[in-house]
Amino acid sequence: MKSSWRRNFKVGQTVVYRMPKSSTSPGQRAINVRPSTAGESYNYEVEKYWVVSKVFGDQRVELVTRTGKRHVISVDDKRLRLASWIERTFSADRFPNLDLLGEGSLDSLV
Known about the structure:
Blueprint: E1 14-23, E2 30-35, E3 42-56, E4 60-64, E5 70-74, E6 80-82, H1 85-90
Antiparallel strand pairs: 1-3, 1-6, 2-3, 3-4, 4-5
């Protein structure tokens, strides 16, 4: 049963997405590190700092990365959340800078 509570994302909001990854040597930003079933690699998550570029009517959002890549993710995904004010303040350099991407505003990303 799905919850009737939905998160309302708006264009321009900063979000954090916990991207699942797997490798033999997790990096410094790896969280929830655990060995794989075979034991030769590790499964973990890395927090990605993105900006909402478009909100679709079917409960999906398009997110833009620092390099300009776009990802479409459901707002019900538990790995997606709004960035806290502490993250926006102290990790501001991890969020996309739309001016450096050559995009004057979020409207041009759509």
